[in-house]
Amino acid sequence: MQPGLDLQHVDPAVRPQDDLYGHFNGIWLAEHEIPADRSADGVFHALRDASERDVHALIERSAQDAEPGTVGAKVGALFASFMDEAGIEARRRDPIAPDLAEIRTVADTTALVRTMARLQLDGSVGGFVVPYVYTDVGDPDRYAVYLHQAGLGLPDESYYREEQFAAIREQYVAHTARMLALAGWSPDEAEAQGAAQAVMALETAIASHHWSNVETRDAVKAYNPTPIDAVPAFVTGYGVREWLGELGAPLEHVPNVVVRQPSYVAAIPALLAEQPLEAWRHWLAWSLVRGTARLLDAEMVQANFDFYGTVLSGTPEVKERWKRGVALVEGAIGEAVGELYVAEHFPPEAKARMLVLVDNLVDAYRRRLEVLPWMGAQTRQRALAKLAAFTPKIGYPDRWRDYGTLEVTADDLVGNVRQASLFEARREWAKLGGPVDRLEWFMTPQTVNAYYNPGMNEIVFPAAILQPPFFDMAADDAVNYGAIGAVIGHEIGHGFDDQGSRYDGTGRLVDWWTAEDRERFDALAARLIAQFDGLRPRALAEGGVSGALTVGENIGDLGGVAVAYEAYQLSLGGQPSPVIDGLTGEQRFFLGWAQAWRAKYREAEALRLLTIDPHSPPEFRCNIVANLAEFHAAFDVQPGDGMWRDEADRVVIW
């Protein structure tokens, strides 16, 4: 049995007792150069590269061999339309010229919102509010329409107000002017600059009403079911009902909408009335240009990348065209690709072994829930019921999405992307009024990731993450439990984090806790917030982690690795763990965990993620094990060691 650990990057000058992450990954962190076409690199990215190569081969084969009208033929045609460089260069900005002309003729705010709705329907713009369909968390046996704040070209509302982003704001205005000029909206330089300034002023006004990331992740605060006609109309005679109607929603099945940020939606009428119409026209034109630039000629692609790739994330070079083509196909008809991917790259025995791992993780969680010292009997009983109701989904969907009505051609990239957006919008709207589809997946099988869906109380692990170093059929169990086992535990843990714990086993948003237990849980979460708040990644000179933004993921990590450790112990059946290459099973478990978080970020990307990402930087995710007595025992960590944490300061929740 091979250990499954890549030990070549271990830094012998750093002890695991002082810095587990730096010990296992130190040489790699010091020597590895991030490829020029990305803002970060690491274990996840290596798996994504492999998935990308596999998918590329499948797509090219489909383009050559698939029968007309089949899923494979549509995949091939969409990819071919992206690779048609000569045709794309010849058309330049022609695909969006009619839309810009329509925006230019907008005579009032009613016409503006109607035009915005038309462009939202085919995915050309995001609009100032985004609708989506999801299970109604107040009644999880039905679907509801949710409304979410939008309208910004920068990553987050904080970019419009915080001093640390002042330079980015200046560059954003210059970028907007450049793009509007290239698109032909404002061909005169002074006019383009004026339009960009107007866009910035308008987006700043929009951002002033946005909820913060921390507020928005509050599941209770963001659940506001509202009669559709009670939502303030955008303009006189044109409100959410009319807007959703133009987007194709079956209004007979939309008596209510769930407004996630009510104060923001309530501010829209005043924004439309008080901000100059000309500024709104510039904003909508900019939204169109920004939303479609990646599909246009090379000059537009490069100009768009110069800001969104280089300025915001520090990435020096645009990805090769074939890589961007694969990403486009994945985003437009990813499950069609997934059907091809699974047939070649996910053996049945991998799924069978994963199901055993999941069963062991659930059993370990159950055992821990049964003895939690801070949880009372009533809440414990309901927590166990929720755990028993978990649905694991492994590898790929039991039923594939039907793309039969989607039409694509090999010579119309923008048209294809719009058709794919229309197809997806109609598929989503068709859910309303019908039974909840509990077989649906919200990630493709070729995605290197996993998720917990609170509205369906399910954990989902796509095929592509079930590969080394997360899951290795030839590896020692200790490493698999430390990597994919902890990922499984993390996703199960989301059902019991600060927000997931507000949903019961059916996916209903309901308070199933006693007040005393919730108070004790919140106190533990607050300690974890304080533990992470302000932590600065070793590669940055400024910026720090937001403990409040990352607390849910930190709870997931902390519980996930602790429960995975217990599941590994259960897998030993009472026998001592084997020693391999001088390492005990317990040590290999924690090194497998450290291996899974190997990653490196460009400075700009690291700063951006500190603002918007609910996950902590990888080094802190790895070293969260300083809270676990099991880690201290595995490596004989002593007071004075870098990873030592006094027992009174350790946080253990699940």
Keywords, please?
globular, alpha/beta, 9 strands, Neutral endopeptidase, domain 2, 2 domains, four-stranded mixed beta sheet, 654 residues, 52% helix, Collagenase (Catalytic Domain)
Walk me through this protein's architecture.
The chain has helices at 20-31, 43-65, 71-83, 85-91, 97-104, 109-121, 166-182, 189-207, 213-216, 240-246, 262-274, 277-292, 298-313, 321-345, 348-371, 377-388, 413-429, 477-494, 515-532, 547-571, 585-596, 603-612, 618-622, 629-634, and strands spanning 40-42, 129-136, 139-149, 225-227, 256-259, 391-395, 451-453, 458-462, 599-601. It is an alpha/beta fold and 654 residues long. The chain folds into 2 domains: 9-38 and 346-397 and 441-649, Collagenase (Catalytic Domain), CATH 3.40.390; 93-295, Orthogonal Bundle (Neutral endopeptidase, domain 2), CATH 1.10.1380.10. Strands 2-3-5-4 form a 4-stranded mixed sheet. Strands 6-8-7 form a 3-stranded mixed sheet, covered by helices on one side. A hairpin with a 4-residue loop joins strand 7 (451-453) and strand 8 (458-462). The longest helix has 25 residues, at 321-345. 46% of the residues are buried.
Give the CATH level 1 class of the largest domain: Alpha Beta
Indicate the CATH topology of the largest domain.
Collagenase (Catalytic Domain)
- Total of domains: 2
Q: Uncertain segments of ≥5 residues (pLDDT<50)? A: none
Task: Return the CATH architecture of the largest domain.
Answer: 3-Layer(aba) Sandwich
Helix segment tally: 24
Measured by DSSP, the beta-strand proportion falls in: 5-15%
At the fourth level of CATH, the homologous superfamily of the largest domain is: Collagenase (Catalytic Domain)
Distance between the termini: 32 Å
* Fraction in helix: 40-55%
Q: Strand order, biggest sheet?
A: 2-3-5-4
Q: From the structure provided, what is the oligomeric state, counting identical versus distinct chains?
A: single chain
Going by helix content, strand content and strand pairing, the class is alpha/beta
- Main β sheet profile: 4 strands, mixed
Per the principal axes of the C-alpha atoms, what is the gross shape?
globular
User: How many distinct beta strands?
Assistant: 9
What is the averaged pLDDT score?
Answer: 95
